[in-house]
Amino acid sequence: MDRETAGRTGTKKVTVFVGSARKRGATSRAASTFLEQLESFGDTRGEIVFLSDYDLRVCNGCKRCTNEGEERCPMKDDRDALIGKMIASDGVVFASPNYSFQVSAIMKIFLDRLAFLFHRPRFHGKTFTSIVVQAIGMGGRIVKYLEFVGGGLGFNIVKGSCSMTLEPMSQEAQDRMERNLARQSRRFHDRLLRPAFPTPSFLGLMMFRMARTGYRQMLGEDMRDHVHFRDRGWFESDYYYPVHLGPFKKAAGALFDRAAARFFRPRDARPGAGSAVPEQS
Predict the structure, then answer these.
(1) Per residue in 145-193, pLDDT tens?
(2) Model-level pTM?
(3) How many angstroms separate the CA atoms of 44 and 15, rounded?
(4) How far is CA 123 from the centre of its chain?
(5) Which residues touch 60 (CB under 8 Å, ≥6 apart)?
(6) Using an 8 Å Cβ cutoff, are 114 and 70 in contact?
(7) Does residue 250 sit in helix, strand or coil?
């Protein structure tokens, strides 16, 4: 698609959430490079958000957000302001340095505070990718982890990137990072312009059907996950959003429903449950 055609689709808002406190470090530089490449298409505007600028408190595991609703969280901080930025964006990027072979602490705290959204995903139709920078190896695993996170939140996933940024960065390393981010920005831009609600994969379909059956059969109507799925009609729908399923996926969906119904059947309703061999006289 040429830029003239792309421009007619409307301006897309993309927000990069940076999990590093270094405003001029490698992660920030990679985020800026990615957005510069993306904005060069002429139909995208970006914003960089440093998580360290916000008050994010450590989750205490009370489960109120999942059981009663996110508004019941006792942590009164900036979580909802950051979620609001995600909701207002067409595309979201998580950028993190490789710290101890995982995302940075502030990024992990942010992800932990989004836990209820894995139960009740709300970012369908939006595009996601990740940027990881490192001075040592294993960053590819972090990219895969963040892609899994994005999928769990409902995003359409674009393959992320991992760049070596050992300081001081050589010109060769800088050029390699810029090439990686240029390719990634093109993939991201292409995904932004494609249909927002694609046909789900078999894995995505299975996860949806298993989750909804579990919530319907195992949770009472006082539990937020049950209410959320019920009120959106997800207990009866083919998927999270209206979509045409071909005959094979229709059949697979029905199979997943039956398998989930058996798996989540209350123990006392399963054949042989609660029975005992009578004593011999």
Answers:
(1) 999 999 999 999 999 999 999 888 899 999 999 999 999 999 999 999 9
(2) 0.90
(3) 11
(4) 8
(5) 74, 75
(6) no
(7) helix
